Amino acid sequence: xxxxxxxITPNYNCDQFIEQTIKSVVNQTYKNWEWIIVDxxxxxxxxxxxxxxxxxxxxxxxxxxxxxxxxxxxxxxxIQLATGRYLTFIDSDDIWLPDFLNTSIAFEANSEGFVxxxxxxxxxxxxxxxxxxxxxxxxTYHDILKTNSISCLTAFININKLGKLYMxxxxxxxxxxxxxxxxxxxxxxxxxxxxxxxYRIRKRSHSRNKFKLLKHQWSFYRQVIQLSxxxxxxYFISWMFLGIRKYYM
Length: 249
Hints:
Elements: E1 5-11, H1 18-26, E2 33-39, H2 46-56, E3 60-64, H3 71-81, E4 86-89, E5 95-96, H4 100-108, E6 114-123, E7 128-133, E8 138-139, H5 141-146, E9 156-158, H6 159-162, H7 174-183, E10 189-201, H8 210-224, H9 229-248
Parallel strand pairs: 1-2, 1-4, 2-3, 6-10
Antiparallel strand pairs: 4-9, 5-10, 6-7, 6-9, 8-10
Helix pairs in contact: 8-9
């Protein structure tokens, strides 16, 4: 019998992209999933689009936030409501290839419970922007501190094995905070070399402002996981160098 997969999505004003995201989930070859979409008080037409699909497919569930609270709280609400054996995430502007769930489940069976995959990198008009991001075969806690090679788009966790954990309530790097918590429980997260998703790189997204990210990355090391100044400086320098290599080399 196919085990249930819980899919979590925060949504905020993504009516331009959400239809393609929904199509990519509905078209998965693996069919036993529930999809919890938490809307963060959108002011565009994305809620109406999601509601139309909820009527067509009972696996899709829309939760409306009472106030705008950010992606971390939305994802944590979804995690709280998840009832599946597996937990995975997709943002409301990204796309899975049809075999993402099937491949992740098969790969996870030979792991400690935490896997992730490579992905294509396109611009917001679905044109290739950078070369494919090919993930390492495995990563440790300390590897993620140097560079977060686990995308929220392809992380896949067996919560029957590892339990439910939650993202820290920060604007940036909340996903990294969750991966580190799981990597305190297992030695490795294992990477699938084949690209299984499309990460849409948008000009105005938070993650594209690299100067702001410098401040938030340092704050993450010092305040969220409370590293010493020396350790923070070491990982911060590694993160800057590897970030340049990730996008520009």
